[in-house]
Design a protein that fits this description.
Aminopeptidase; single chain; 42% helix; 296 residues; six-stranded mixed beta sheet
């Protein structure tokens, strides 16, 4: 077929179709603005500036600052456990209670400043949690969580996670996948992460930060030995989104399992939570004392 014939066919075909429809007495409905098939939706308003939490403790800005993150919150309950009486216990409430107990212990020391990412039952985007620590210039970021073993019996104990591109175990990989999907499940998918931050994460350019986090994790395990129960191989690593502050040493403290009777008894009582807070506060004090000696 010549080019000329092809062009004539393309121009003439619509006319033939329209003529055939008219001959049959049919009517063609053309799109009309405002009809049912026109979809309208509101664009999301641009996210406002991040609201930073208040800082408690000494007014001296040279004093070390710890940002404590109570995992989950709001419509995201996290892991949920049920006791023999049928009472339900949500991770979001447990983590907030431990975070507040830890803040109180740190303020007793008198030389450490403290901020909480949330002080009530609200939901926060995963990316906002470490970003608060970065913008506040924190010296340490601790995200507190509790886990669930589902129907598995006898699974309990605490653990400490640091950031790594490769998970330290299959269990760590599963945990990271679940925690990193918290935003997606609860409608808080956030995009547009800084390219600079992403590059730092991929290349692990801030190796000192990761080393410091690993040191702090070791101190927590040492101070908690004989006081708190830990899982087998409690020092773990995973690609956890909440630990992605490239310039702030960050750990995730997995306090225990809400599905374990013994763990749940500790996690849901003031006395039990005080034990967690005391261990973490002692580890924080030792960690900063060592850093001061190294820098001095």
């Amino acid at each position: 077929m010549s080019l000329r014939a092809f062009i004539l066919l393309m121009l003439g075909l619509p006319l033939v179709v329209l003529g055939s429809v008219a001959a049959l007495g049919q009517r063609i409905i053309l799109p009309e603005w405002g009809r049912d098939y026109v979809l309208r939706f509101a664009l999301e308003a641009p996210a406002g500036p991040l609201v930073l939490p208040g800082v408690a403790g000494p007014k001296d800005p040279s004093r070390p600052l710890v940002v404590i993150d109570a995992g989950h919150g709001g419509r995201d309950p996290g892991a949920v456990g049920t006791d023999e009486a049928g009472a339900r216990f949500a991770e979001k409430d447990i983590t907030l209670a431990i975070a507040k107990a830890l803040r109180a212990e740190l303020l007793k020391i008198g030389t450490i400043r403290v901020a909480l990412t949330r002080e009530d039952d609200r939901i926060l985007a995963l990316a906002d949690r470490p970003e608060m620590a970065r913008q506040l210039g924190a010296d340490l970021f601790i995200s507190i969580h509790a886990d669930s073993a589902g129907d598995a019996d006898g699974v309990g104990g605490a653990s400490v996670y640091t950031l790594s591109n490769e998970a330290s175990s299959e269990a760590a990989a599963r945990f990271a996948a679940r925690e990193n999907n918290a935003d997606r499940v609860n409608g808080l998918v956030v995009t547009g992460e800084s390219a600079v931050v992403s590059t730092i994460l991929v290349e692990l350019a801030q190796q000192r930060t990761q080393d410091d986090a690993a040191i702090f994790a070791s101190v927590v395990l040492r101070e908690g030995a004989g006081v708190l129960p830990f899982v087998t191989q409690p020092k773990r690593s995973a690609a956890l989104a909440v630990l992605r502050a490239p310039d702030v040493p960050s750990v995730l403290f997995e306090s225990g399992f809400v599905t374990n009777d013994a763990d749940r008894a500790r996690l849901t009582t003031p006395e039990g939570r005080q034990a967690y807070a005391a261990v973490l506060a002692r580890a924080i004090r030792i960690y900063f004392a060592r850093r001061a000696d190294e820098e001095g």
